[in-house]
Amino acid sequence: MNLVLQNIGRRFGRNWIVRHLDLEVGQGECLALLGPSGCGKSTTLRLIAGLDQPNEGSITIAGEDVTKVSPIDRRIGMVFQSYALFPHLTVFANLALGLQVRGISATDRKQRVASVLALMQLEDLAERHPAELSGGQRQRVALARALLRDPLVYLLDEPMSNLDAQLREDLRPQLRNLILQGSQPVIYVTHDQHEAMAMAHRIAVMRDGKIEQIGTPQELYNNPLSLFVASFVGRPQINLLPAESGIIKAIRPEHIQLSSDGIPCRLVYREWLGTSQLLILESNRGPLRMLCASEITIPETIMLNWSPEKEHQFNASSGERC
Ligand SMILES: Nc1ncnc2c1ncn2[C@@H]1O[C@H](COP(=O)(O)OP(=O)(O)OP(=O)(O)O)[C@@H](O)[C@H]1O
Question: What top-level branch of life does the organism fall under (predicted)?
Answer without folding.
Answer: Bacteria
